[in-house]
Predict the 3D structure of the following.
Amino acid sequence: MRLLTYNIEWFAHLFDDADNLMLDDQCSGRYGVDRYTQGRAIAHVLQRLDADAVMVVEAPNTGRKQRCTRALERFAAEAGLRTSTAVSGFATDTHQEIALLYDPEVLKVQADPQASKSAPRFDGDFEIDLDVDDRMDRVRFSKPPLELKVATPGGTLLRMIGAHLKSKAPHGAKNSKEVVQISIANRRKQLAQAIWLHRRVKDHVQKGEHVIVMGDLNDGPGLDEYERLFGKSSVEIVMGAELTDPHAQSLLKPREPVQPSTSRFYNPETKRYFRALLDYIMISAGLVAHDPHWRIWHPFEDAECYDDLPLREALLAASDHFPVSLDLDLT
């Protein structure tokens, strides 16, 4: 079985207000890429990787007229994908939903949001003292994680959670002082979301359930100087002792000569690209026995991706993130 997580940059821009796919020469959400090129590139990547389920981060919008699942299913039909059915969770105000596109002949999937004493539902409020002032702060997800109950044909049950944690970027800062203030505030909120997510993971693991967390955590060990103020990255918090992801764990090793990455961004000030590891598939201990194999489909780090010219060009045109796959021996 192959599972995929893929942050598709501004996927919503490829659809009109009635969720009709627009493939033309107009600008997409990606700088310098038109809608036809991005749409065809996304289709090529998903066809080539041929996953049983794709966790789509930055999925099309759900709003007054639009519906994320309808847009994704229309895209799948246009692209001829066997992942023809979509499921999403709580709608966001960001035009960036979280949704699972899956093959209904392989998997049975249903949205199944949970709540417990330690972790409220992801569309609610989470109370935590963020700044150690003995006062509880209320935290909300702008993009509530997608909680799914998944069954394989052989009867294996999975708890799958799609996540897109808050960005640490200091958007709106007008000077260096505001950059620091907003960066620290954003990191506090991101760490609170990570704690909230980890508590949900721990709830499921303690019940003996298989757990898979997939998505863009907007963080990784050692990514910025503000991490030292808080001791751990949000990735480490989400993993805890319950989950495993070899790419995340490689960043914890001292003097690791080559670090993996899942994204590539352009810095207009330096006129250079920079890379970051932001996208993960974390699994609980019970799934380690099912021969897991992770792969980042990065055209400049994976030799086969680079040598496959159509795939390389499609990966670069489709998004500023690259897909991460997990192959499991599951029936």
